[in-house]
Structure formats: C-alpha cells, structure tokens
Amino acid sequence: MNNNETKKERAVLAGLAAASMDEHERSSDVTMEELAALVETTGGETVATLIQSRPTPEPRTFLGDGKVKELKELIEANDCDLAVFDNELSPSQMRVLSEELGVKVLDRSGLILDIFAQRARTREGQLQVELAQYKYLLPRLTGMWTHLVRQTASGGSSPIGTRGPGETQLETDRRHIRRKIQKLEEELAEVRKVRSTQRRKREKNAMPVVALVGYTNAGKSTLLNCLTGSDIPANDRLFDTLDTTTRRLRIDETQEILLSDTVGFIRKLPTHLIEAFKATLEELSYADVLLHVIDISNPEWAEQARVVDELIRQLGAEATPCIRVYNKCDAYFGILPHGEDTVCISAKSGEGADELIRLLAARLDKGKRHVTIRLPYSAAGLLDSLNREAAVLKSEYTEDGIEVEAIVPPELFGKVKAYIPGYVEPKEEWET
What is the reported pLDDT for 162? Predict the structure, then answer.
C-alpha cells in the first residue's frame, strides 16, 4: 500500500422518514444509496447506514434519543470520522448532534456544497460555490464560537476598529459574512452582465443555444462529447460537471448551434444553491431548446425526471421547448418511451445520435436558408439588413458588387431572392 495515500474518512449515514414530512423529503433506501454515492464522490467511505421512521422529527436531535444512542454506538464500533444526515438539519440540531456523537456532523446540503467546492474550476463557478457556502454558514454560526470569550471595548487584543461595546465574536463574524455575501453577489451580477452581452451577440449572429439538462450522472457530458467530438471528462460519479461547457455543433447545412452542458440536478438540492447558481442556470430560460437527458437504465429514472422538471419550473424555463433524451437505452430491457419530442439513444456508443440531431434540426428550423447573394452596388443598402437580421458567414467586395454568403430568415428572403444567382421561384401545385 502507498504510504502517501490519503486516509479515507469513514462515515455513518442517517436518515429520517417522518409521516409529517413532504413525501419527497423523506429518506428511503434509494436516497440513502444516493447519499452514499455523494460521500464516495467527496473521497469518503460509507461504513454503516441507519434510517428511522417516526411521526415527526425530534426538535432537539432530529432523530429520537434511542436512535441517536444507536448512531453513537455505530460510530464508535466502526471508528467513524463523521455522521452524514440525508435530511437538512437546523443549526441547533447540528450543534447538539455534534456534541452528542463526538464527531463532525454534516447534512445533505453541506455535503453537496463540499463536492461543489472541490469541483468548481472557473472563477465564476468558484464565486457561486463561495456564495452558497456563506449563505449556508450564516445561520449555523451560533455555537461555532462557544470557545471564544466575549469581546468588550476594554478586553483583549482585538484589532482596532472591530471592538464594539459588548460586541461578540459571533456578531462580528455575522457582519463579516454578510459583507462577503454582498460582495459576491455584486461580482456575480457582473458575471450576469457579461453573459447578457454574450447572449445578445449570439442572438445577433442567429446562433441558437441548446442546453443539456438532467439529473446528475445521467450522461450529459458523454452526450456532449458524442455529438461534438469533444473530449470533456465524463466520469461515472455525481456532479462531475459544475462549470458550464459550451461547444459548437453543425446540425445541418444551414444551421450551427451552441450546445451547453450544465450542472446536474439532484433531489433535495438546497434552495440557496439554486439561487447561487442562477448565473449558470439562467441560461436555461434563454435557451432555444432544452435537451432533458434521462438515464433510463436507472430504476428511479421517472422520479429523477420529475425532480429535473420541477427545478426547470423553479428557474422559469418551463416554457422553453424541450426534447426528452432517454440515454443508456442499450442497458434498458423494457418498452422504450416514444412520442413527439422523444428520442432514445446511447451516448456511449452513438446509437440514436443521428435521430436526435434530425429532431433538433426540425425543432429549430424556422425556414432559414443558406444562400449566396450577389448584390450590385445599387442595392448595397440590403447588406445592412443582412448584417442585422441574418447570419452573414462571408462577404467579399468585387468589381461588380458584393458577394455575400449568409443564413437568411424567411422574412428577409423575399427581399434578397432576386440577387441569388440561378434562383427560380418554385411553382405552386396547381401550376404544374
């Protein structure tokens, strides 16, 4: 064994299925398996799992006293470093449980934030994670500073300017974190401005945007690689993609699109995490089409698709046209879904990719035409219209006029068709 190998943290998992909870918030074998996968993604190891059923959560310790004792015994017997709860804990519950269990306590939200902090690579992704972490930390500060003495104007060696009349370290830290949150929100607002400028440029260039969405680990990055020939890392682990990746894809001779991979969704995703990631996820509401990637080989695919649909609704993108892409169909042994705006594929082998591109081209086809136009200088004013309303791919000035290659929308085509060499108006059926 390699002595330099980092020791894996050992975790015991705990969950509650209370009758008073919303059905989607209750813990089950499936959500606990998902939690174990999240622990593995952080580099930890799950050694024991415990689920309790009771009418309501215990206000003080979330689980009942007997289960907390059982949990403590499991931790001691298995030499665990932390306890991870499948449900969101209140700050006071987290503090009490940490004291009673004698190990670090995390809830599902805290674990997801930890993964996001490990994975974010771009400055924007890091900003978003940091903002979410501070919002998560703020209400949980109580009890984190119980070892610190009360600051007073006359007590201790506090930095100049931080000593107030009877101000506590807790209050100082709260103010500091609120300032950090405000600064991060301002920086993210700048990111949104840049994105908005980029989006306007894309709209001007008539470049449609297609966003890949789906449950975490559904195969979105694999599909992006399959369609565009990219080599974006696509590993079999949760939240492998955090920073939005965008690639160009030509879907037919007249149309090129921007295909964006987005962060995977997951059930019980913390609200403040959705808020913090809006700078990335707001792209969904501006996309021309959503490709909702569903891992049909997963027994829970229907519930996962429901979670994604609900998050799309929360982000205000429910009106965006959506194609449901059932991935991993080669590993599914049942009747495959079918119908309008539905396609079954295997992103790994490429099976069904051509059909998906055809469906996408049909969804985006708005009667645009890829044409070469020869404008005499007397009609040079049309070049302004082409630059404004079409996607001009190339323009060249010659002795006789301006030669323009462009993708032209139908509303402009009527004005330029007279300058298309060899163009003949198609006859109506009754004329043939």
Answer: 42
Amino acid identity at 25: E
Nearest to 11 by CA among 126, 145, 104: 104
Structure tokens at 354: 């051509």
CA–CA gap between residue 80 and residue 102 (Å, rounded): 10
User: Across the strands, what pairs with 265?
Assistant: 215
Q: If you ran DSSP here, which 8-state letter would residue 345 be given?
A: -
- 101: which 2 tokens? 């269990």
Task: Tell which residue, 337, 333, 408, 341, has the closest CA to residue 375.
Answer: 408
196-253 pLDDT, tens digit per residue, is 776 666 665 557 889 899 998 888 888 988 988 877 656 555 665 555 677 888 887 6
> The tokens of 162 are what?
């931080």
For residue 13, give the nearest of 87, 94, 77, 79 by alpha carbon: 87
Q: For tokens 């260039």, name the residue.
A: 205
Give the other-Cβ count within 10 Å of 212's Cβ.
Answer: 25
- For the chain, what is the mean pLDDT? 81
Residue with tokens 């969904």: 284
Q: Which of 252, 267, 242, 207 is nearest to 28 (CA)?
A: 267
DSSP state of 213: E
Instruction: Return the closest-CA partner of residue 365 out of 240, 218, 206, 242.
Output: 206
Question: Which of these, 266, 276, 324, 274, lies nearest to 300 by C-alpha position?
Answer: 266
